[in-house]
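Lab meeting, item 3. Inverse folding demo.
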């Protein structure tokens, strides 16, 4: 092939016009491959012009055009190339061996060829080609494992592909308590099948019973994490039976508005923001010891967050009480964050520091008790605050 296509020209600069498909393919990949070969000078039989012996590329492409018989090294090669050659290319120590090509893409300098051969399936006793469906679904031990856990969950997986099997588990119609566990079953089963495959590949043993035990253990751990307050059984059938029959305990507390004692006036405040930085309102209402409404106010304020609206409502309520001469007030809010801030348990956020400062200053002018209350206790106040919308 060299005598036919590169008899007059070196293979580095030979053309492919009218050549065979094989030679045309070689010319196509030449630009990608040739500059990755570095020649180590020994006997000196490498081509000065067409072999990459300087690691800068083929001299034919980097040295100005000149006639070979008229070349003088220092007259035709730039000074930086000369310095590079003298600095990086040592003088050959032996002259009785051929110049050695070095493949620069490998640390060893050797050019190797790899053949893509199908991997052996480690999940089967008979040697077969390893594929993802074979490893995770259709192999005997995988099929047996899937059927075991699917039958207890009343899921039919016969004749389905691996993505369809996973989708069956994810979309299964079951009680709400079971859904978090059913959704992780495919990941747990596939993960343990992969671990078993790796153990067998590296010469370790893994039986079917140990595989079932590990899947049960992983499901139990996930169930214990998801439902930390429940005593989850350790096996899959018992887990399903337990969660299907489980009836959660309902905890409740009766809430109602309690009138203030003595001559105190109770003030309930509320603030709201639609979008938690959008259209906002604040409001408050005052009631005496008999529960009669003394005063109520609700208005729209500038766009703010829920926390800012709650703080503005408290400031407006305290300001009104001082204005009308109410010196003993019990103020209730459902914002536990503001309670922590006003009692100096938490630091004051920067965005409400001015409002909190106004509340602290106003609190020095009268006796005010600030308490936390449930949201349901101040339904009337919430109506006044939302009236601003």
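The presenter then showed the designed sequence:
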């Amino acid at each position: 092939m060299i005598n036919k296509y590169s008899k007059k020209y070196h293979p580095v600069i030979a053309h492919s016009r009218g050549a065979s498909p094989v030679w045309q393919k070689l010319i196509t990949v030449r630009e990608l491959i040739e500059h990755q070969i570095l020649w180590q000078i020994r006997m000196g039989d490498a081509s000065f012009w067409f072999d990459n012996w300087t690691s800068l590329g083929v001299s034919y492409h980097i040295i100005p055009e000149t006639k070979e018989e008229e070349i003088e090294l220092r007259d035709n090669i730039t000074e930086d190339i000369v310095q590079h050659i003298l600095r990086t290319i040592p003088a050959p120590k032996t002259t009785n061996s051929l110049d050695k090509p070095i493949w620069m893409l490998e640390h060893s300098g050797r050019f190797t060829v790899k053949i893509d051969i199908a991997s052996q399936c480690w999940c089967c006793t008979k040697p077969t080609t390893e594929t993802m469906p074979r490893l995770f679904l259709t192999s005997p031990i995988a099929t047996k494992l899937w059927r075991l856990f699917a039958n207890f969950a009343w899921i039919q997986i016969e004749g389905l592909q691996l993505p369809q099997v996973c989708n069956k588990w994810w979309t299964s119609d079951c009680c709400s308590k079971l859904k978090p566990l059913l959704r992780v079953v495919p990941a747990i089963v596939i993960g343990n099948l992969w671990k078993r495959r790796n153990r067998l590949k590296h010469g370790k043993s893994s039986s079917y019973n140990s595989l079932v035990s590990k899947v049960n253990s992983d499901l139990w751990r996930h169930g214990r994490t998801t439902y930390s307050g429940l005593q989850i059984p350790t096996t899959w059938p018992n887990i399903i039976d337990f969660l299907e029959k489980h009836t959660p305990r309902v905890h409740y507390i009766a809430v109602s508005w309690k009138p203030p004692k003595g001559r105190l006036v109770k003030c309930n405040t509320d603030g709201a923001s639609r979008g938690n930085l959008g259209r906002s309102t604040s409001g408050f209402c005052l009631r005496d010891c008999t529960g009669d409404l003394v005063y109520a106010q609700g208005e729209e304020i500038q766009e703010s967050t829920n926390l800012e609206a709650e703080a503005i409502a408290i400031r407006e309520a305290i300001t009104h009480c001082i204005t009308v001469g109410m010196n003993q007030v019990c103020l209730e809010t459902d914002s536990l964050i503001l309670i922590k801030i006003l009692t100096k348990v938490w630091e004051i956020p920067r965005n409400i520091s001015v409002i909190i400062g106004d509340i602290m200053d106003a609190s020095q002018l009268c006796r005010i008790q600030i308490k936390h209350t449930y949201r349901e206790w101040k339904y009337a106040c919430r109506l006044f605050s939302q009236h601003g919308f």
